[in-house]
């Protein structure tokens, strides 16, 4: 079997709000993710159903300490280097740079922190892959503008990009504009800082916010190419093939429409225009989106260089409303697929679905692809030294790497790299838990915030090290 291409970017992925901690350190401002609690109120807040724009003593907020990457980054990056990482996907905390989002000048302490992180990566030959916005909006902009429902957000995002691109133009090559941009439709506060009042036209607000983010992404690409033509700008979606429950044509059509909900965003970012199906859907659903005369040209002239995505599970859907036995998987509801096993959190494990997803995306866009999230969330049981025999994680990842290899070698997919999610244990975005672990590195901390934060290698650490060292031939 042909090996992965030379220069394939093996690595791992994190997000600022799930690992950095130090949530108000060195001038950082309050962000949307900082006010999303653990526990029963988490989903109502993420959905925008429960308004929470500050913190209180009645809730626990996982982002406040997380795994304290802010003070452990040197130790953590050294462990990534020991595994042989070629790239490290991370995100910028918007409120470390502009604490309120509309500050007249950026916060130098925040800029220096990322300088130090990038320098540490480059010391080991690790290429930073930077997400500009990973579920992160300054609370001040939510309170004053209504977040991405306002077109003024584009201006503040452009300023953020201008500062980041200019500051790090010689340290970072690969950028992602928004993490899982399609999540705006499913978790509107988590994804875009959106809140709703009684009587709001919720769908129109969501799609208006989506248009503003798509414009912001295009303008970020324009700024990037002006500052450094060698920058590579990517978009990012939460992906996963959707199967029809039966061979009934109605089920097949339903599966196609469910996938289009996510592809719509990438169609715009990759092709530079709204697809007809999206325009017709908005017309038929009475969704009103205000677009300015110049928007179409900006979108057309500033498309992305590559397409990145997360893949955890496939989904199954039916056109029959009576068929409603759903799993707990990620945010996307899915019928239970009898042909697949599921994780402890109900996410259906489907390596072949990854190969299918790779083919569908490459056939659709003919642009390089990058898998920037993939992994198995599981309850790990460490010994007294923090060592975890996580063969279940190795089995999961091995099957998915084999699927990637098949997509490259047998199908001709152009795949740039692979950064498994949570290469070090961190806070789960969906549940706010620590016990839902993904990492090759165990972090001593529990759901209640107790623990020493000591780092230790799991069995999967050495396995992944061998995968990278062999460029995917030793699995």
TrEMBL record:
InterPro entries membership: GH, GH_1_N_CS, Glyco_hydro_1, Glyco_hydro_1_AS
Record carries keyword Hydrolase: yes
SUPFAM superfamilies on file: (Trans)glycosidases
Domain of life from the UniProt record: Bacteria
Molecular function, one GO term: 6-phospho-beta-glucosidase activity
Keyword vocabulary terms for this entry: Glycosidase, Hydrolase
Active site per UniProt: 373
E.C. number(s) listed in UniProt: 3.2.1.86
Entries under Gene3D superfamilies matching the protein: Glycosidases
Pfam families per UniProt: Glyco_hydro_1
Recorded family membership: Belongs to the glycosyl hydrolase 1 family.
Protein name, per record: 6-phospho-beta-glucosidase
Organism in which the protein naturally occurs: Fusibacter ferrireducens
Lineage: Bacteria, Bacillati, Bacillota, Clostridia, Eubacteriales
């Amino acid at each position: 079997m042909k090996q992965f291409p030379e220069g394939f970017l093996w690595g791992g992925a994190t997000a600022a709000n799930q690992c950095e901690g130090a949530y108000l350190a060195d001038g950082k401002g309050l962000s949307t993710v900082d006010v999303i609690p653990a526990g029963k109120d988490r989903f109502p807040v993420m959905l925008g159903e429960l308004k929470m724009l500050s913190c209180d003593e009645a809730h626990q907020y996982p982002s406040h300490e997380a795994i304290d990457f802010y003070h452990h980054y040197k130790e953590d990056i050294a462990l990534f280097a020991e595994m042989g990482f070629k790239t490290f996907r991370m995100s910028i905390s918007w409120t470390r740079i502009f604490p309120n989002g509309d500050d007249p000048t950026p916060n130098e302490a925040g800029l220096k922190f990322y300088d130090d992180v990038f320098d540490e990566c480059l010391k080991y030959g690790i290429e930073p892959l930077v997400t500009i916005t990973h579920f992160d909006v300054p609370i001040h902009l939510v309170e004053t503008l209504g977040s991405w429902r306002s077109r003024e957000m584009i201006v503040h995002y452009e300023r953020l990009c201008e500062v980041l691109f200019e500051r790090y133009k010689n340290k970072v090559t690969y950028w992602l504009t928004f993490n899982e941009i399609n999540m705006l439709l499913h978790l509107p506060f988590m994804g875009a800082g959106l809140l709703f009042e009684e009587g709001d036209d919720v769908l129109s607000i969501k799609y208006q916010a989506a248009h503003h983010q798509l414009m912001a992404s295009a303008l970020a690409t324009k700024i990037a190419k002006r500052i450094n033509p060698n920058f590579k700008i990517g978009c990012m979606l939460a992906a996963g093939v959707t199967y029809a429950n039966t061979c009934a044509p109605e089920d097949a059509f339903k599966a196609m429409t469910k996938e289009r909900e996510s592809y719509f965003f990438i169609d715009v970012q990759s092709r530079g225009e709204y697809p007809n199906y999206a325009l017709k859907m908005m017309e038929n659903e009475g969704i009103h989106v205000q677009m300015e005369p110049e928007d179409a040209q900006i979108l057309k002239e500033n498309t992305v260089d590559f397409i990145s995505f997360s893949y955890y599970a496939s989904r199954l859907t039916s056109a029959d409303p009576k068929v409603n036995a759903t799993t707990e998987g990620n945010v996307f509801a899915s019928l239970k697929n009898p042909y697949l096993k599921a994780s402890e959190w109900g996410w259906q494990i489907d390596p072949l679905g990854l190969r299918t997803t790779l083919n569908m995306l490459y056939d659709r866009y003919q642009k390089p692809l990058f898998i920037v999230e993939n992994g198995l969330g599981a309850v790990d049981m460490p010994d007294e030294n923090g060592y975890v025999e996580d063969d279940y994680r190795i089995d999961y990842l091995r099957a998915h790497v084999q699927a990637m290899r098949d997509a490259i070698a047998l199908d001709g997919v152009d795949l740039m790299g692979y950064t498994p999610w949570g290469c070090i244990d961190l806070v789960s975005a969906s549940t706010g838990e620590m016990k839902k672990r993904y990492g090759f590195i165990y972090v001593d901390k529990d759901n209640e915030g107790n623990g020493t934060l000591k780092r230790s290698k799991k069995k999967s650490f050495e396995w992944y090290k061998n995968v990278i060292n062999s460029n995917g031939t030793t699995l």
